[in-house]
Amino acid sequence: MQVEMEFKGLEELVKAFERAATDSEIAAVNKKIAETAEPVVQRIMSGKMPKSADITKSGRGFGSKSSVSAHAADEIPMGKVKVKGTGATADVGWEKNTQDEGGHFYVRFINWGTIYRPPQEFIYATGREADGELQKIAEKEYQAFLDRTVG
Predict the structure, then answer these.
(1) If you placed Cys at 67, which of 45, 61, 88, 125 could pair as Cys (CB 3.0 to 4.6 Å)?
(2) Rounded to whole angstroms, how far apart are CA atoms 116 and 134?
(3) Close Cβ partners of 3 (under 8 Å, ≥ 6 residues apart)
(4) In the Cβ-directed half-sphere of 137, how many Cα atoms lie within 13 Å?
(5) Which pLDDT score, from 0 to 100, does residue 96 have?
(6) Tens digits of per-residue pLDDT, 19-30?
(7) Residue ranges of the domains in the chain?
(8) What is the pTM of this model?
């Protein structure tokens, strides 16, 4: 799952940063922002996911040999940060079209729903809630770069 973030209210800081930095420096700072943001998003997402009181009643097997050993909320995958041009992206959570997510194949049905169960949409709710923290991370990193280079 990938959520696109647009930082609002940082326009002047971003413009100053882009004027002061080379493309490779911009890419490095954006990569650092993405790496710092991943655990924040993971923590917020974990808090939005349902957890059963009894792990043996979780997963696809409901107690069979294919049941999960941990709640999906405790095993949210984080992808490697990818840099393309000056931008950086990181995936946190599960993709909708993958076959198996380390025993949490059915987590997608919690988020997107089924014909029997309405969607709980914790993925996009996570993105909305994380926005403020991610903006603070970006602001801190951009300002730190300017403080080091422009002085």
Answers:
(1) 61
(2) 35
(3) 123, 124, 126, 127, 130
(4) 20
(5) 61
(6) 898 999 999 999
(7) 11-146
(8) 0.80
